[in-house]
Structure formats: structure tokens, C-alpha cells
Amino acid sequence: MTTPDILILGSGMGGATLAAALAPSGKNIVILERGDFLKDSPQARDPAAVFGGYFSPGETWYDANGGTFTPNNYYHPGGNSKFYGAVLMRYRAEDFSPLKHMGGTAPGWPMSYDEFEPDYQAAEEMYEVRGALGEDPTEPHHSRPYAFPPVPHEPDMIDLCNRLKAQGLHPGALPVGVDIDLWLKGGPLTFDGFPNTRGGKSDAETIGLAQALKHPNVTLITKAKVTKLIAAGGRVTGVEYEQDGATQTISAPLVCLCMGAVKSAAMLLASANADHPTGLANASDQVGRNFMNHNITAVLGFSPFRRNRSIYEKTIQMNDWYLTGGPNGEPLGNVQMLGRITGEIMAAESGLPLPISRWLADHSVHMMTMSEDLPNPDSRVTLRDGNIVLQWQRSNWEAHAALNAKLKATLKKAGWPLVLTKTFEKRTPSHQCGTARMGHDPATSVVNPFCRSHDLENLFIVDASVLPTSAAANPSLTVAALALRTARHILQS
Asked: How many Å apart are CA 323 and CA 467, to the nearest integer?
């Protein structure tokens, strides 16, 4: 293989979007992806298989106490987005400035929302986001309307919206990258958590990677597990990877690390050498630190007198408490629908007998609360004997508890007298971010505002690891927008 101009490590939302944006330049681009294409199978629409771990790679991570867990981390072209809920939501404008929370102060970003807005707009159009403006009082400025109308609310979700509006709240369309008609041709199930093997979801493979691979100058190498970055003289000089039992080395003038917040940090740490004894790009000692994952709770409103006949359900969000709601007006977070929980999903997740799970699922609405997890240098990714150790220290829990209490009271008033909750644990790092934070100061950050390493002049890190804050929004659109911004910078440099 000839030496490429640009080497991209990982094909999730960051890597695939970056490749798509760079591809028209004609530069020779090689993408290394650890996994292979996700093939369709009967298990792809089987709740017991999907939620029972059939698609899990079975990886083992460690916690700070030496315990182990199997994370919901996937390795395929498209990365974790193959299984995501397709929520493509902007941060609020206020999230880009320092913002005081009940648990501390979010530091803001090294850029303003207005500076970043064109990239949000481009990412929404690229990923064909369905949404609506004018419903959400916290919605930031959009330079253009959504290109596609929102996914329609099902009748029982219209009823839920009306009951929330009757309490003076502002439920509205959840921005999602879903062609619902195409999705439902693959089976009458929600898109949230199910693998995108039959089309319908705008994920990093079906959009970003597909656009990139239309160009003959882009090559994707699958089943290529990156094991080490080689650096010398302030540059990355090579990348080692394993494929089919053999170790190979590839180099490029420009290397883009896009493996996700946990894996990118782990790769930099694992690549330590004599010149970089604490890991590559880590002169600041910030690599792996400031891990954030959101505080997320599933909230089920139950009524024996009310049936939920919806199929996909995940079309509503509510941000009345996103910027306020705490005892002193502090932000609490976002409320959105979960995908429709069926009896089979509930049985797989809870262990309850299927008949009981079906009855509970069919008599409840399924929502989730999401509150900001604040950056903390002691919440971090480290390595122990080459194994990933995730020391996640939750933050801002008081705000999340207050958000849960508000939603519980709201659902009870709306006609669901019993409200059940289950908080997501660390084995679900689907919103992982931080670990290679972005900033102007090389002493306190890993990359600059264009995602270039402060320490290694030809290394860019383009995934959720660079996010300086988690906000209370699903991170996928922000990662895609950052990738578009970084690609523009690379081509203009």
C-alpha cells in the first residue's frame, strides 16, 4: 500500500464524518476499523438477543476497585452509532459558556455557540435530521430550518404531549436521524438500541462512511485492530495494527485518532515511549482525565387503566428544566422518550417473567432523564497491565435527583400514578466524553479548538474525547459537527 496522506483510526461518528468531509479533496485517505461490517440476522430484531448481549464483543473493563464489567461498546464500521437511538440534538447556546450547576460549574468551551452553529447546521443536513423549530423555548439559533419534518408522534404520544402541555410544559419533537417508514419496513420495533442492519437510521456508516467511500481516494481496512501509535520528533511516525494474526505498520503525514473517548485515551496511554513516558499527547497530564458519561435514568409512568399502543415511541423531548428548575434556578437537564420498551425488552433487562413484563410495558410510558456530568480530573481512564480501568465518579447528582422528582410528579399528575425508575450504570458508556479535552492552554488541555494535539503536530483527535463538557444532550451531533469543523481546518491549513 502506498503511504496515504491522511490516516483515520476508527469509523464512528467522528472518523466517518471526518472522512466524508475530507474525501472530496482528492487526498489519499485510509481508515482503519477494528471491526467488520454489521450483517443482518434474525437477532438484529430480537429483543432478547439485542438486550441480552448477543452483539456485545464481550470486552472486559475494570473499575477502580478491581471489579470487572462488560461495556456496551461496539466495533463495526459506524461504531457505536450502529446501535444508537439516533438522537441528533444540539447543545444549548448557554452550554458553551461557564454555567453554574447544583454540583459545580461547567467550564464552557473555547468557542461560542455562534461560532460553532454553521457546523451544527451542516451536520444536521448531512445526517438528515428530522426536527421542528418553535416548540422548545431553550432551542438555540438555527441558521436554517430542519430539512426534514419531525418523525410523527404516535397517537398515544400525542395524548402524552397534550397532558404535559396542560401542565404548562413544552414537549416537542425530538430531533432524530430516522426515516421511520424505511425503519419500520425492517420490523415493527423501536429504533432505540437496535442495530441498523436493514436501513432507516442515519448512522456513521450509512451516512458518513457511505459518502466517503464513494470517492476512489478513500480506502477502508476492516478487522484492523490498532495497538500502538509510534511517535518521534514531535510527530506520529507510524501506527501499528493487527490484522489476521499479523502485525503491520502504516504511516501518514496526518493521523486522526477517532476511537471514542475511552479507547482514544487508552491508545494514547498505551503508546507511551521514552520521549512521552506518561503517554502520547499527554504533557498536560490530562489524557484520560475528565471522563463524563451523563447521569441518565429510565423513568416509567405506569397506569393499569391506560394502554400504550405505540411502536417506536421515541419522538418527544422536553427542556423546561434544561436551564433552570433547581432550588436557586440551577439547570437540571433534558427529558426525552426512551424507545418503546416491550415486554420482551423488559424481561431481558429485569429478569421478570414475560407475561408480567408484557403487561407492565403495555400499561406504561417510557421516558428518560439526562443531567450534565461535570468534568472531574479524578474521573478517568487509566491502564493496568494493559487493561482499561474506568474510574467514573458521578457528579451533579443532586440536579439529576431533582429532575427525576419533577418528572415523577408531572407523570403522576398526568395520569400515571405509579412511577418506576432505573439509573443507567457504568456498563452503558454510550455518551462517553472528555478524556482529551479541548482548550487554548496546552498546560490544561490535550487538543486545541481545531482538535489538533498540542504536543504532536500531525495528530488530530476527533471524537467525543475532546468535548470539554457533556452538557445534557446526546453527543453524536456535536461530534459530527466537530469533525466537519476539523476537516475544514485541515483542508485550509
From this structure: 19
**123 — pLDDT class (breaks 50, 70, 90):** very high
The three-state secondary structure class of 61 is strand
34 confidence band (pLDDT: 50, 70, 90): very high
Q: Point out the least confidently predicted range of 102-116, 200-214, 270-284, 340-354.
A: 340-354
CA distances from 321 to 225, 405, 470 (A): 42, 12, 16
Assigned C-alpha cell, 117: 452553529
What are the beta bridge partners of residue 9?
A: 32, 257
* Domain residue extents for the chain: 6-492
- C-alpha separations of 77 from 38, 80, 223 in Å: 7, 9, 10
Does residue 172 contact residue 315 with C-beta atoms inside 8 Å? no
Q: What is the DSSP letter of 232?
A: E
Give 285-342 pLDDT, tens digit per residue. Answer: 999 999 999 999 999 999 999 999 999 999 999 999 999 999 999 999 999 999 999 9
* Burial state string for 258-268 with b = 16 or more CB within 10 A and e = fewer than 16: bbbbbbbbbbb
Q: Which three cell numbers stand for residue 1?
A: 500500500
Distance of CA 223 to the CA centre of its chain: 23
Q: What is the pLDDT of residues 374-391, one digit of tens each?
A: 999 999 999 999 999 999
Is there a contact between 432 and 282 (Cβ–Cβ < 8 Å)?
no
144: how many CB neighbours lie within 10 A of its CB? 11
Q: Give me the helix-helix angle, 397-414 and 155-165, nearest 10°.
A: 100
Stated pTM of the model: 0.97
3-state secondary structure of 355: helix
Beta strands in 350-472 (DSSP E): 364-371, 380-384, 387-391, 418-423, 459-461
For the chain, the distance separating the N- and C-terminal CA atoms, rounded to the nearest angstrom, is: 26
CB 100 within 8 A of CB 61: no
Nearest to 98 by CA among 420, 468, 482: 468
245: left (phi over 0), alpha (psi -120 to 50) or beta: left
Q: Which residues pair with 266 in a beta bridge?
A: none
Domain 6-492 class in CATH: alpha beta
